[in-house]
Recover the amino acids of this structure.
């Protein structure tokens, strides 16, 4: 995955054949393109500049700079090929010497889904004595620009069966849909199946999605979670996860995320605090590059 640029770059002249073609996409996916420097980056032609960047894990990409007032809505790039990960477009008025950056919005598991804005979430769940369970989760996002808007809706259904000695097998299906208020500025989502083992202290799951935020994009996600209770109403937890691209035509690298947290139970009310981060690279939203580390506090009320 290409890291977001954190320093302004200057557009430079380059009069090679500028327009990307399907053959360019093909060579890039095969890893055999010998002249990428003539396709990616910024190349001036007349009164405009062709921009192209490799951002396989992006949900949306825009070019911001001196020529458009650093406005993220003025020059949006288009995904050339979902499996190649190249975004391209033309910015009118961009000339040599102009500074620019790529505004790249990323996604779940180590990335901000709400562009750094506060989120409120309501979870409803039901566990049947037979082992079947289901849940529904809805989220709202608060921003100064839009106010309170719907962020996303996630549904899941699963089955858990105890195997003995404190171990439970867990399988299920998740479907998630997100609105354009995520910061991607378009509706998106994914569906995945999962299976795992849950123990008294440690649990692990593997998730498989055929459409991870893009149609036909196959990825797997593995996670390991642990939790202990040093006191009767205090729980400490830890999590590590890895996102693995499975489609050989989708150029990307492994991604990772981690989280540590504490929960204090006060009857039906629980207070949470978590520290999380991920990589490689940085997250980018609201026209600013951010480290992916985040500290989150919250509360849960069970009724």
């Amino acid at each position: 995955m290409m890291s977001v640029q954190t320093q302004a770059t200057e557009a430079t002249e380059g009069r090679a054949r500028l327009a990307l073609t399907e053959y360019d996409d093909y060579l890039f996916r095969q890893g055999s393109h010998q002249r990428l420097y003539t396709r990616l980056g910024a190349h001036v032609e007349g009164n405009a500049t062709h921009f192209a960047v490799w951002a396989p894990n992006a949900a949306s990409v825009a070019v911001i700079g001196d020529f458009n007032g650093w406005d993220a809505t003025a020059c949006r790039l288009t995904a050339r090929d979902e499996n190649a990960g190249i975004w391209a477009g033309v910015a009118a008025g961009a000339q040599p010497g102009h500074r620019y950056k790529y505004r790249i919005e990323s996604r779940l598991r180590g990335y901000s889904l709400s562009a750094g804005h506060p989120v409120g979430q309501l979870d409803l769940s039901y566990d049947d004595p037979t082992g079947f369970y289901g849940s529904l989760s809805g989220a709202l996002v608060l921003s100064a620009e839009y106010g309170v808007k719907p962020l996303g809706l996630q549904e899941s259904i699963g089955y858990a069966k105890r195997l003995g000695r404190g171990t439970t097998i867990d399988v299920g299906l998740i479907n998630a849909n997100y609105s354009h208020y995520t910061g991607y500025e378009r509706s998106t989502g994914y569906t995945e199946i999962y299976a795992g083992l849950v123990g008294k202290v440690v649990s692990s799951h593997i998730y498989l999605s055929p459409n991870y935020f893009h149609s036909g994009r196959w990825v797997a996600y593995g996670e390991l979670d642990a939790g202990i209770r040093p006191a009767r109403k205090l729980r400490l937890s830890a999590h590590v996860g890895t996102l693995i691209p499975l489609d050989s035509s989708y150029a990307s690298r492994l991604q990772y995320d981690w989280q540590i947290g504490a929960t204090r139970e006060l009857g039906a009310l629980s207070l949470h605090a978590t520290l999380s981060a991920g990589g490689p690279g940085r997250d980018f939203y609201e026209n600013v590059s951010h480290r992916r580390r985040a500290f989150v506090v919250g509360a849960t009320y069970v009724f």
